[in-house]
């Protein structure tokens, strides 16, 4: 266990609770001392502290011990008074201010990390001025009337040998008018030890006169109490003391040069002897004697059982006295004061047992007397005595707690005493390693004075740091509290120091709010001091605080910009956090042999372009190999992995700027940082390396800046970011000379005040234009290095009037415009479009046509060619005519046809290949890539249903359903066309009877019915086939008598887009004769489509392919004969002759066998035979299809359902058939391709009635040729068909 006297608290007590010597001296004494830059007390003070005085002392009970450490405190009589509180606070403020100036000069470096602090000893962690401040704080309570350890023990009267009548001067010095008020008021005993000192200045004369005066003094005041001190023995005053003993005691008001310059070693020895003799031979014996006398008096009056009972009885009447802060007044002669003096004298002479017994004795008296301040003072001393005795820690802490609480209860009168008690209590706890508890006491002694509280909170923070384990959060939090209090008292430097220490706690943690608070205020306070560089560096830490409120973010940004403005200069900050740059979002877009018409085209993945260009670029794989081989020959090894760009063409870097704040920010002058150096292979060329300089401020949104001596042009972009907004910024650099270009980074200006830099070397950069072959991984900087080659021709292209939003079926005429700004022409142009269903290249003659008039049907004399020239298309690649080239400052326009085939978000990719003259050995060709995004909305839903006509062999019934799927548009129906010239379409009823307005409004549906005739089946010879001009393949859907022209679906572009639709569905033109396609055309007068559209009505075409003719049987037939006859059954049976016409619509020979049945079960309602029927008459249960209603007579129409019902009833009533087939029961016939044949039939009827003659079947079989078998004919080759219902009405003749 460490000796309590050697602990910080023990050392403090040995310095502060020691005997006081009152000094009375004449002005001439001070004058002699001031020659050395010291007052008299300052001259003696270094020699009044003894570390080994070795004086024997006896206790009151005659127990001997030796006193080793001893100290005298010297005060002028004028200073022995209670300090003025305001003056004490001013003194403390000066101490703090001086400490702040000293500490602030040592804060140029970064604050130490917490881990480094914990590795240091405590003496290096805690500021040294804390101890000095605490001592000054304790001294503000000096010379209290209720404590005796500040009462003078002795009086030192000092007279100069130069004074007139020195003996009288000694007598005059102790005049009561000059003594402290505490002595005159009775609080202190005026009968104290007096010691007389004569000071002789050897600079004035020799010591003979002084010796005579000393003899006279001894005769007057006694031989033991008088002494002579000779000083200033040095004649030249050049003595320099290497170890200055007066430094801790020197006042700033005195000159600091040549301190002690007239005091030689003899003078110092004489001063030491004086203080040694005064302490050991006068003061200590006097105190020892005083203790003995007081102890005897106390023992006689207060000790013992009888005296204690007497004291309690005497004090019993005081219990009803009112409480007062000071309690009753005690003079120095009262028993209570004598006991207190006894305890304090014993404490100062290290007799702690005696001191403790007297403190205990007087504590009860003060408590009974309700003298709470004196009671708290005694409790305080008891706690200190327990500590020094190293006894009962609980008792010591209880006494300190009791004293502290009692002082606090006294209010302002006991506040300062509570602070002193708390400081001693803290040191007691720290000595016992109760550091966390000590921090709590520091917090409790914080007063209303913010400056005092700031120091206490800072000391508490270090207690938390030194606790086991360290309580870092509380350490940082109390530092912040301390800094706030320092700032309130204008101690900005101390506030900065505490906040800087707090940074080490919160840096790198998730405590973002308090971290932002610390950084911001450090920056703000540095700005108050005019240290703008450091202020800006700290404020930068909180600029991107996205977690803060909008109001706080506005405060941070406003103060930051004001600080920058006050500095009067532009700050350049690497990795400025406002705005935030995402390293993964950085993309480099440049052009080599691949060029782009728009930013949208540059953002498309390379593999899409490569797949589109495979059929366009000749020998792509070989060219790739040759490219790399050529590259390795032309490019030095050091730059093999660099990219290639062309002089005069911009390189674009896409960078995402994100505003992390909730408030808008202004970003200006966004530009790239680049370096251009000569190509290593061109050492003989002129030096053209240049670095980027800061560009001038521009007011435009996007500008370019170029240095006269620079070899590249930089663009500048100005943006404004709303709260939380992310914007893609694409600054460009355009090299103007050949060489090696390197993009280093990007810079920008925040609010036109701070320049931010971002270095690309430390981030990963995505290179948008990637080479075709996967390369090995290289450093990120390689993606930003380019080899600049000389200027090459470059095509620029755009498509005029291409809509961004339209409806399904939209058909338009567009124009592709290509321009070349180079003097070198380009040739051998080719074009490929990713989706020909939407976009198709037309003929050059279609460039200036009027749309849609150009699509109208022409007369025979006007009809020319049909589709676009097929010789221009090779593997979906459109080849421009060889004589076409694009020259300087000229443009090439080419017609395009657009058709919105299907709804959805459609991407169109267009690549144009072109070749150049021999202007470069590296690039022989280039490609122009174009990309457009379309939004196609649903418009009309068109569906078709085709059914055979049972009454005519060459006719089909067609039903068309149209539904308007738009929400607001109105379409006008125009025409329906069949693809091919073998079909003839006619309306069964006028459209205006169904749709009077000819307009189909939003959500409305339309159903139309048509008759479709196949003219190929109408004759058995080619000579009888009508000419194409006579076939009606289109039908207008407008009102009758409307003269609007029909559109020609057999010519471009309708025929071309229809072919694309067939190809999209995997169909070919082979076997098209067995299938039918339709094109439905409508118009939209006014719509919401995107633009570019003309003011004329928009044209819409909807294409339907293979409308299920191929699913029908190739064999069809028709039974013809009478429907109503009259016969006299009384005379004979009725014979009826019929004929069946059978047609073969296939390209193969058909073998057909007709089987008839007499049984009713086989003839009436059989609907399916062996599951192989492919085309039948519709049974009575089936309500689908179309039927002619047989006419029974001129006045009556009987439906097929009614006939079937009546016939079924008649048959059920009879057990035998009422008719029989009287001809052959089985007839076989062979039909040639596309031919017909007739078979005679006959029945015999036995009774009148209505008969269904459907009890027969047709078995057919196609006889395929060998060539057809090799082609893999997919159609069905055989089948069985049930007979059609044919109703015969037989009447009895009259």
Automatic annotation (TrEMBL):
<dbReference type="Pfam" id="PF12739">
    <property type="entry name" value="TRAPPC-Trs85"/>
</dbReference>
<dbReference type="GO" id="GO:1990072">
    <property type="term" value="C:TRAPPIII protein complex"/>
</dbReference>
<dbReference type="InterPro" id="IPR058538">
    <property type="entry name" value="Ig_TPPC8_2nd"/>
</dbReference>
<feature type="region of interest" description="Disordered">
    <location>
        <begin position="678"/>
        <end position="706"/>
    </location>
</feature>
<feature type="domain" description="TPPC8 C-terminal Ig-like">
    <location>
        <begin position="1210"/>
        <end position="1257"/>
    </location>
</feature>
<dbReference type="Pfam" id="PF24544">
    <property type="entry name" value="Ig_TPPC8_2nd"/>
</dbReference>
<protein>
    <submittedName>
        <fullName>Tetratricopeptide-like helical</fullName>
    </submittedName>
</protein>
<feature type="domain" description="TPPC8 second Ig-like">
    <location>
        <begin position="809"/>
        <end position="928"/>
    </location>
</feature>
<feature type="domain" description="TPPC8 first Ig-like">
    <location>
        <begin position="606"/>
        <end position="756"/>
    </location>
</feature>
<dbReference type="Pfam" id="PF24545">
    <property type="entry name" value="Ig_TPPC8_1st"/>
</dbReference>
<dbReference type="InterPro" id="IPR057651">
    <property type="entry name" value="Ig_TPPC8_C"/>
</dbReference>
<dbReference type="InterPro" id="IPR058541">
    <property type="entry name" value="Ig_TPPC8_1st"/>
</dbReference>
<dbReference type="InterPro" id="IPR011990">
    <property type="entry name" value="TPR-like_helical_dom_sf"/>
</dbReference>
<dbReference type="Pfam" id="PF24542">
    <property type="entry name" value="Ig_TPPC8_C"/>
</dbReference>
<dbReference type="InterPro" id="IPR024420">
    <property type="entry name" value="TRAPP_III_complex_Trs85"/>
</dbReference>
């Amino acid at each position: 266990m460490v000796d309590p006297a050697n602990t910080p608290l023990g050392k403090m007590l040995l310095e502060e609770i020691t005997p006081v010597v009152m000094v009375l001296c004449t002005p001439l004494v001070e004058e002699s001392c001031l020659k050395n830059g010291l007052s008299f007390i300052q001259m003696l003070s270094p020699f009044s502290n003894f570390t080994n005085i070795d004086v024997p002392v006896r206790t009151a009970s005659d127990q001997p011990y030796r006193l080793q450490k001893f100290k005298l405190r010297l005060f002028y009589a004028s200073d022995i008074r209670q300090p003025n509180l305001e003056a004490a606070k001013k003194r403390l403020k000066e101490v703090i201010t001086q400490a702040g100036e000293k500490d602030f000069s040592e804060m140029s470096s970064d604050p130490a990390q917490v881990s480094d602090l914990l590795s240091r000893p405590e003496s290096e962690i805690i500021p040294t001025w804390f101890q000095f401040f605490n001592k000054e704080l304790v001294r503000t309570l000096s010379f209290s009337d209720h404590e005796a350890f500040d009462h003078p023990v002795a009086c030192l009267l000092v007279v100069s040998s130069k004074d007139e009548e020195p003996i009288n001067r000694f007598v005059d010095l102790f005049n009561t008018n000059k003594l402290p008020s505490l002595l005159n008021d009775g609080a202190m005993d005026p009968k104290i030890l007096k010691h007389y000192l004569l000071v002789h200045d050897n600079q004035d004369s020799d010591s003979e006169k002084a010796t005579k005066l000393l003899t006279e003094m001894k005769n007057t005041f006694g031989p033991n109490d008088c002494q002579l001190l000779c000083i200033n023995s040095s004649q030249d005053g050049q003595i320099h003391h290497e170890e200055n003993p007066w430094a801790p005691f020197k006042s700033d008001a005195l000159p600091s040069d040549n301190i002690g310059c007239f005091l030689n070693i003899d003078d110092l020895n004489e001063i030491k002897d004086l203080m040694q003799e005064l302490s050991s031979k006068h003061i200590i014996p006097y105190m020892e004697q005083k203790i003995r006398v007081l102890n005897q008096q106390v023992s006689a009056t207060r000790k013992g059982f009888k005296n204690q009972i007497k004291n309690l009885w005497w004090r019993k009447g005081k219990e009803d006295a009112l409480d007062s802060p000071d309690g009753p007044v005690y003079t120095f002669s009262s028993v209570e004061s004598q006991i207190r003096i006894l305890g304090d004298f014993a404490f100062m002479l290290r007799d702690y047992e005696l001191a403790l017994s007297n403190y205990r004795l007087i504590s009860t008296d003060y408590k009974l007397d309700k003298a709470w301040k004196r009671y708290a003072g005694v409790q305080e001393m008891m706690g200190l005595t327990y500590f020094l005795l190293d006894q009962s820690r609980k008792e010591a802490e209880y006494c300190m707690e009791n004293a502290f609480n009692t002082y606090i209860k006294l209010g302002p009168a006991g506040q300062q005493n509570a602070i002193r008690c708390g400081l001693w209590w803290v040191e007691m706890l720290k000595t016992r390693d109760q550091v966390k508890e000590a921090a709590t006491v520091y917090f409790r002694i914080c007063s209303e004075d913010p400056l005092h509280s700031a120091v206490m909170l800072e000391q508490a923070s270090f207690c938390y740091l030194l606790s086991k384990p360290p309580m870092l959060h509380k350490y940082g939090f109390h530092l912040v509290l301390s800094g706030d209090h320092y700032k309130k008292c204008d101690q900005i430097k101390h506030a900065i120091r505490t906040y800087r220490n707090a940074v080490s706690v919160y840096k790198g943690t998730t405590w973002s709010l308090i971290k932002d608070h610390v950084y911001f205020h450090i920056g703000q306070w540095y700005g108050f001091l005019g240290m703008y560089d450091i202020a800006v560096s700290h404020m930068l830490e909180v600029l991107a605080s996205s977690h803060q409120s909008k109001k706080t973010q506005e405060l941070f940004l406003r103060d930051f910009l004001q600080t920058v403005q006050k500095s009067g200069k532009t700050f350049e900050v690497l990795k400025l956090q406002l705005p935030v740059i995402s390293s993964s979002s950085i993309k480099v877009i440049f052009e080599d042999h691949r060029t782009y018409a728009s930013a949208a085209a540059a953002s498309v993945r390379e593999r899409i372009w490569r797949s589109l260009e495979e059929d366009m670029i000749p020998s792509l794989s070989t060219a790739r190999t040759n490219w790399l081989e050529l590259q390795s020959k032309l490019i030095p090894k050091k730059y093999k992995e660099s990219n290639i760009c062309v002089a005069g063409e911009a390189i674009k870097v896409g960078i995402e700027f994100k505003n992390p704040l909730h408030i808008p920010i202004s970003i200006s002058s966004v530009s790239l940082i680049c370096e251009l150096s000569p190509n290593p292979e061109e050492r003989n060329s002129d030096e053209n390396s240049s670095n980027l300089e800061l560009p001038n401020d521009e007011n435009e949104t996007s500008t370019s800046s170029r240095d006269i001596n620079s070899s590249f042009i930089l663009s500048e972009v100005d943006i404004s970011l709303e709260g939380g907004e992310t914007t893609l910024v694409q600054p460009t650099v355009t090299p103007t000379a050949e060489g090696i270009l390197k993009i280093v980074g990007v810079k920008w200006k925040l609010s036109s005040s701070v320049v931010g830099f971002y270095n690309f070397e430390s981030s990963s950069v995505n290179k948008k234009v990637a080479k075709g072959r996967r390369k090995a991984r290289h450093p990120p900087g390689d993606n930003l290095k380019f080899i600049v080659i000389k200027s090459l021709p470059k095509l620029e292209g755009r498509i005029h009037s291409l809509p961004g939003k339209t409806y399904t079926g939209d058909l338009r005429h567009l124009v592709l415009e290509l321009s070349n700004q180079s003097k070198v022409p380009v040739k051998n142009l080719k074009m490929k479009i990713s989706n020909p269903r939407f976009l198709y290249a037309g003929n050059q003659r279609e460039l200036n046509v009027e749309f849609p008039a150009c699509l109208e049907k022409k007369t025979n004399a006007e009809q020319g060619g049909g589709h676009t020239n097929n010789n221009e298309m090779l593997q979906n690649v459109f080849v421009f005519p060889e004589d076409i080239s694009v020259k300087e400052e000229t443009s090439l326009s080419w017609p395009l046809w657009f058709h919105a085939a299907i709804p959805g978000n459609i991407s169109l990719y267009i690549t144009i290949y072109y070749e150049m003259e021999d202007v470069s050995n590296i690039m022989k060709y280039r490609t122009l890539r174009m990309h457009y995004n379309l939004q196609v909305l649903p418009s009309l839903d068109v569906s078709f249903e085709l059914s055979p006509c049972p009454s005519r062999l060459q006719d089909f019934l067609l039903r068309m359903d149209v539904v308007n799927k738009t929400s607001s548009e109105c379409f006008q129906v125009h025409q329906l066309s069949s693809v091919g010239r073998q079909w003839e379409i006619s309306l069964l009823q006028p459209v205006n009877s169904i749709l009077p307005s000819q307009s189909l409004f939003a959500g409305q549906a339309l159903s139309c019915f048509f008759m479709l005739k196949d003219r190929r089946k109408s004759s058995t010879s080619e000579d009888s086939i009508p000419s194409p001009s006579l076939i009606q393949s289109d039908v207008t859907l407008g009102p009758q008598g409307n003269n609007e022209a029909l559109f020609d679906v057999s010519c471009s572009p309708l025929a071309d887009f229809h072919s694309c639709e067939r190809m999209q569905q995997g169909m070919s033109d082979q076997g098209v004769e067995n299938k039918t396609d339709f094109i439905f055309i409508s118009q939209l007068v006014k719509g919401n489509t995107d633009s570019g559209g003309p003011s004329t009505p928009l044209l819409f075409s909807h294409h339907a392919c293979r409308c299920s003719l191929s699913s029908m049987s190739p064999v069809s037939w028709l039974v013809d004969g009478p429907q109503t006859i009259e016969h006299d059954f009384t005379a004979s049976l009725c014979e009826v002759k019929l004929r069946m016409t059978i047609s073969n619509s296939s390209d193969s020979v058909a073998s057909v066998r007709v089987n008839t049945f007499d049984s009713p079960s086989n003839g009436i309602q059989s609907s399916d035979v062996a599951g192989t029927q492919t085309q039948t008459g519709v049974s009575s249960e089936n309500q689908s299809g179309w039927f002619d209603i047989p006419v029974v007579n001129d006045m009556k129409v009987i439906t097929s359902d009614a006939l079937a019902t009546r016939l079924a009833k008649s048959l059920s009533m009879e057990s035998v058939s009422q008719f029989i087939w009287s001809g052959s029961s089985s007839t076989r016939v062979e039909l040639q391709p596309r031919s017909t044949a007739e078979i005679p039939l006959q029945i015999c009827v036995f009774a009148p009635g209505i008969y269904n003659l459907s009890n027969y079947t047709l078995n057919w079989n196609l006889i395929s040729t060998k060539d057809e078998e090799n082609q893999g004919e997919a159609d069905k080759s055989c089948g069985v068909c049930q007979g059609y219902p044919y109703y015969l009405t037989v009447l009895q003749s009259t």
